[in-house]
Amino acid sequence: MAEQTRNLAIIPARGGSKRIPRKNIKLFLEKPIIAYSIDVAAKSGLFDTIMVSTDDNEIAGIAKNYGASVPFLRSAETSNDQATTIAVLKEVIMLYAKHDTTFDNICCIYPCAPFITRKALEETFSLLKQGQADTIFPVVRYGHPIQRALKKQGNYVSMIDEQNMTVRTQDLEARYHDAGQFYWLTSDALHMKGSLITDKSIGFEIDENETQDIDNDTDWRLAEMKYTLLHTNIKN
């Protein structure tokens, strides 16, 4: 009998958010925003363990109350403003390994991503299981072709790439950006390539209405309104 695949969800949530203080546990509608990430991971049924990587005891307590585990606190090295997501993931895997616990696949789920759906987690994991990718994550198509981007010099604007001035927008190739929600990756890819985007990464396209950058208070209010609209009479 084949050995069962073991999956780990890591939710990185340090306490030192600058633009929105205590962002990771700020109430989003009726509950701390991190609770949405924990909840969707749990409802997916994909994970052997759902853990929160944090340096903050209050965040740890809230995470536990909503069903996540916090087996250890994050180090000072991975808690500063310069720490990368990859560094956080590697630290978590290393600490689990010290306790003889290993995982085949990892899903890094950001704590401020209430628009993640169970369906997206399931479909992207299904793609990962096919063995054709190191990493898989949601992407969103730019609303307007970036090939027609402008730059400003003083009060004047000009095309960054003038050869696209006369090209019809519908004839320009679509471009995408990272939705900033979650990343599936194999443990082998984490150890061998150490990047969330490799030469074998798959972008799983989602609608622009299914994501929202939350970098300031206005973004936060917009996200709450969008979430409310999307979830009126809809169950994911």
From TrEMBL:
| UniProt keyword terms in alphabetical order | Nucleotidyltransferase, Transferase
Q: Which domain of life is it from?
A: Bacteria
- Its EC number is 2.7.7.81
InterPro entries recorded: CMP-NeuNAc_synthase (IPR050793), Cytidylyl_trans (IPR003329), Nucleotide-diphossugar_trans (IPR029044), PseF (IPR020039)
Keyword NADP set for record? no
Example GO molecular function: N-acylneuraminate cytidylyltransferase activity
What CDD domains does UniProt report for this protein, alphabetically? CMP-NeuAc_Synthase (cd02513)
Q: Say which enzyme class the record assigns.
A: transferase
Q: Any stretches that span the bilayer, and where are they?
A: none
Q: Name one Pfam family in it.
A: CTP_transf_3
Tell me the protein's name: Pseudaminic acid cytidylyltransferase
